[in-house]
Structure formats: C-alpha cells, structure tokens
Amino acid sequence: SRVEERKREGKETLCALMMDEVSIRKHVEYAAGKFHGYVDLGCGIVDDSLPPAKDALVLMVVAIDDSWKIPVAYFIIDGLIGEERANIIKECLLRLHAIGAR
C-alpha cells in the first residue's frame, strides 16, 4: 500500500478523511437468493425488516502530502443519527491509524 511504501522510505502519510452522503433511488429487489436495496451497515443483517435505503454514505481518504485518494468504506442507509455517524468515523480513523496513516 501507499502508506507502507512511505513507511519504508521513512516518511509519514498525512491524510484527510472525507465523507459524502449521496441520494440513491429507493428500490428493493430479490436476485440470486438475496434482497438488494435495504439498509446495509455491514453487520450482515439484510432482510425485509429493515427499511429501504435512500442514501449511500461514502468515506474516502485523501493524501495531504501525496497525490492519491481512495474510497475506504460505503454504507447503504436511510439516514443516521449523529452517534451512528460518529461511530463509523471513529472506526475508520482507528483502522487508518492501525496501518500507519495519520
């Protein structure tokens, strides 16, 4: 990875975490034995007890001292409260720090 390359060079990788919420069309379908279109926060629960999704929350890391950007996570949502959004950001930051990104 870019972070590991810079570590070998003795350099630190400085990044910014960007987040954007994009509207998507509400549409649920059943294909290949699975439902698609319901809220999915990555916890493995996807069934008709969840509301249909209307947004996609995308997190992207942008290098400050280099020229790259990488989408690192996305969640199919129907709105989030502040605490849920904060938990997602904290988890992403923890994982970035674990690989050496700052």
From TrEMBL:
InterPro entries: TNP-like_RNaseH_N. It comes from the Eukaryota. Pfam families: TNP-like_RNaseH_N. Residues 7-101 form the Transposable element P transposase-like RNase H domain. This is Transposable element P transposase-like RNase H domain-containing protein.
